Amino acid sequence: PQPRYGLDHFDVVDEVGTGTFGKVLLVKLKGASPAEPRSYFAVKVLRKQDVIRSRQVEHTLSEKDVLAHVSHPFLVNLYSSFQDGLNCYMLMEFVPGGEIFAHLRQAKRFTADAARFYVCNIVLALEHLHARDIAYRDLKPENLLLRADGYVKLADFGFAKQVVDRAWTLCGTPEYLAPEIIQSSGHGKAVDYWSLGVLLFEMLAGYPPFYAGSPLEVYEKILQGISGVLFPPCIDAQAAHLIRGLLQPTLSQRLGNLAGGIEDIKRHPWFAGVRWDAVE
């Protein structure tokens, strides 16, 4: 059984993230050796008053519920949750490598091999969630954290923002939204495949496919579709074919949302040679 934790079991090392309803702290288990990596955790602190005032109680409980029911090497794990009079606390795995977007900005763009490796990690994480009828709905570079061994973890389910060096990201970035979300026409797991297409383009090109000065203009570009987007030479024909398949505005034609499901993505020629069972 999981031990019962409270905030008094930990020493606060640093504040590593901030968000609408609170912050994310790096903490260390009291009495544990500083050299023991498993003694470090991230604690998401949610101010009850703010959560209630913003009518986000359901969203917060749902995130806790989702994280409590999933366990995968490419998802940030929730170990425990507790509360006091002021706050709710979620004790989570600490992922030391930082946001993948910081690495992308430093590298300008990723090689096809690096992008393929990261996307494989993400596809397997989405497969795990989708098999449990969970849509992630917030796939974007800020929510991808690098493990110490270079693998990627999906983090935070729409809450935390890393504090460190985020000047390049538009606040509440709309670039990853699927057209069905913009049009409020009802959406499901297929939004994750759309976002995956945007992410792959950005990893390979160094900038997102739909970009403009204001969110409204970005929405217009998204609704105009991928056919109006010029692909740079660094995106090869197979990668472009995969991206276009994922960025299909018509749900019944979007790769991942067809009869073959996510297997259609895994079988795409751009992933030729990938041993999916060996990725984990």
TrEMBL record:
A Pfam family annotated for this UniProt entry: Pkinase
EC class (word): transferase
SMART domains membership: S_TKc
GO molecular function, one term: ATP binding
UniProt KW Protein biosynthesis keyword: no
Gene3D superfamilies (UniProt xref): Phosphorylase Kinase, domain 1, Transferase(Phosphotransferase) domain 1
A GO CC annotation given for this chain: cytosol
Binding positions for ATP per the UniProt entry: K44
EC number(s) given by UniProt: 2.7.11.11
Catalytic activity from the UniProt record: L-seryl-[protein] + ATP = O-phospho-L-seryl-[protein] + ADP + H(+); L-threonyl-[protein] + ATP = O-phospho-L-threonyl-[protein] + ADP + H(+)
InterPro entries: Kinase-like_dom_sf, Prot_kinase_dom, Protein_kinase_ATP_BS, Ser/Thr_kinase_AS
CDD domains assigned to the protein according to its UniProt record, in alphabetical order: STKc_PKA_like
UniProt xrefs under PANTHER family: CAMP-DEPENDENT PROTEIN KINASE CATALYTIC SUBUNIT PRKX, CYCLIC NUCLEOTIDE-DEPENDENT PROTEIN KINASE
Family under the similarity heading: Belongs to the protein kinase superfamily.
Protein name, per record: cAMP-dependent protein kinase
Organism, scientific name: Tilletiaria anomala (strain ATCC 24038 / CBS 436.72 / UBC 951)
